[in-house]
């Protein structure tokens, strides 16, 4: 039987409406709901629709699918696209505190630049960190595009505690907080939103585990307490790649609600016909720690 605490916080599921949810996304949503409800937390839905590849029609289908498998949430859905002034105010404060700097580097520039020892592929090497005003002006003329804003970090690593992975030490570079096109970066938006919504538990796919140290660092910098993390295994295809449309029938309309829920609950080790039954059996310590390989065995 799931134990309930009196925690006043909240968990959340925050899809990006760039494509319909597949069974891997739905499984993660179910797990986020189970973690929240089993600990007495509220459960919130946030639509992360800042990217130009997102659209309202896809978001509406995602919300219908979540309802169809039985998810309930507290309060209205939050849309990031309606919160841009809030993100900009945070960026403006970082600018005023001299905690960001202009960056003119392209992805190609970063990939070709020498990296610090042990820095992961794609980590920012600090190319624009200490540019003089004249060099910044020259870079602006050379690139012909507005700069991104990067956080001026004072660490190279930061540790978080994850319910499934334990203590995790990850690289923290000078990451982007505002893109060159003026769109708030993912790492900034999620930190600001989690704090504003009272979210103190973040359950999501383990492909985002490496993002947690950056986000926890930024949360502390902004005066917020980082949430409790639980990064759960993904659903992969037989080639070990992330699930996609090319892997056949993977969405809720294709699988059907009943079949999809049976597959999800069985993959967790607690066969159930609805979320209430699943919640009664839920035990985070007994969660599978390896990816669920799709297609599932009948």
TrEMBL record:
GO molecular function: ATP binding; glutamate-tRNA ligase activity; zinc ion binding
Gene Ontology annotations of biological process type: glutamyl-tRNA aminoacylation; tRNA modification
Superkingdom of the organism of origin: Bacteria
Motif interval(s): 'HIGH' region: 15-25
Record-listed E.C. numbers: 6.1.1.-
Region (Disordered): 114-149
Co-factor remark: Binds 1 zinc ion per subunit.
One Pfam short name: tRNA-synt_1c
Segments carrying motif 'KMSKS' region: 242-246
Amino acids binding ATP: 245
Glutamyl/glutaminyl-tRNA synthetase class Ib catalytic domain boundaries: 12-251
GO CC entries: cytosol
Cofactors named for this entry: Zn(2+)
Binding sites annotated in the UniProt record for L-glutamate: 12-16, 48, 186, 204
UniProt keyword annotations, A-Z: Aminoacyl-tRNA synthetase, ATP-binding, Ligase, Metal-binding, Nucleotide-binding, Protein biosynthesis, Zinc
Binding-site residues for Zn(2+), renumbered to this chain: 103, 105, 124, 128
Function of the protein: Catalyzes the tRNA-independent activation of glutamate in presence of ATP and the subsequent transfer of glutamate onto a tRNA(Asp). Glutamate is transferred on the 2-amino-5-(4,5-dihydroxy-2-cyclopenten-1-yl) moiety of the queuosine in the wobble position of the QUC anticodon.
Matches recorded under HAMAP family: Glu_Q_tRNA_synth (MF_01428)
Family affiliation: Belongs to the class-I aminoacyl-tRNA synthetase family. GluQ subfamily.
The protein's name: Glutamyl-Q tRNA(Asp) synthetase
Organism per entry: Mycolicibacterium thermoresistibile (strain ATCC 19527 / DSM 44167 / CIP 105390 / JCM 6362 / NCTC 10409 / 316) (Mycobacterium thermoresistibile)
Lineage: Bacteria, Bacillati, Actinomycetota, Actinomycetes, Mycobacteriales
Gene that encodes the chain: gluQ
